[in-house]
Amino acid sequence: MRNALGLMLATVVSAAVIAGVWFWTSSPRADAAPQTVAARKAEPLPAAAKSKDDVEVTASLTKPAPPPAPAAPVAAKPVCANPDALGVSRTVIIDTTGGPGFGFLQYKQFDFLTEKEVVLTFDDGPWPTTPAVLKALADECTKAVFFPVGKHTTYHPEILRQVFVAGHTVGSHTWSHAHLDSKKMTEAQAKEEIEKGFSAVKMAIGAAPAPFFRFPGLGHTQPTLAYLGTRNISMFSVDVDSNDFKSSGPDQVIQNVMTKLDKQGKGVILMHDLQKHTATALPTLLRRLKAGGYKVVLMKAKVQLETLAEYDAMLVKDLKVPTVASRPIASVVQTAQE
Questions:
Q1: What pLDDT digit, counting tens, does each position of 22-42 carry?
Q2: Which of 62, 141, 168, 293 is deepest in the core (most CB within 10 A)?
Q3: Alpha-carbon distance 218 to 268, whole Å?
Q4: DSSP letters of 213-239?
Q5: Predicted TM-score of the model (pTM)
Q6: Residue 89: how many CB atoms within 10 A of its CB?
């Protein structure tokens, strides 16, 4: 009995010792720092092989899309305030190579107008009456070809600029309106009349003029025709002459034009913008053209005329136009108020 009790007691003591050892070794101690293990640095993933197309697609997805290119500005067509205006039915571009001529009174090579088509032309300006002509044309939203005289251009350059800015074609009508078929006119003098006229137009409008020329009094010579051909300047004659320079009044101008035009059916009409009767008659004449079923054709040049430097310089010298300012601009122009 005593042996059995001793054996049981020894068993209990052994169990208690084992439990104490387990508790002491497995429980965390307050003074022991927690131990951690650093995470291993991630290995980069192997890049997948990509084709050229794959790269381009990826780039288009990852890069911000470029902003859309701005649309090219489109010039707005001028709006005509007059719904019943005569207008311009078509514009023709003239290749002036070799100096072609227009107007069947003298030059019959190029019959480009169809029935009921007209070209409006004005000689001898610019003059104080020219703005009234421009207004009449603007009111009917139509265009013309102007042949100014060089000297008149130097008198009223601002008026010729109005003609140019309004979109009309500007050629030349010589420097001084001298008749180039005069027996006293030398070839050198005729050349100077032609070239200085164009130089004056260029100086006034600040741009190259159209290579369009009309002889004063329609008087040409073979040498002047040949010279214009070498300069690729187109010559203009006439189909319908208004004879406005010797008309008794505006009604006479209208009658002259419409009578001849109704007989011929089409053509280049000659008028003069320095004639007061013409400026007064033009609004009614344009309405008569509209009522008669006529249509206006505007002639423009394919290439503008390059004036000759020697005649540009000659014109500056003759007019004594200063080319270099002798005083600083601040001493000449001062702002009084803004």
A1: 444 444 444 344 343 344 444
A2: 168
A3: 14
A4: E--GGG---HHHHHHHHHTT-EEE--S
A5: 0.74
A6: 15
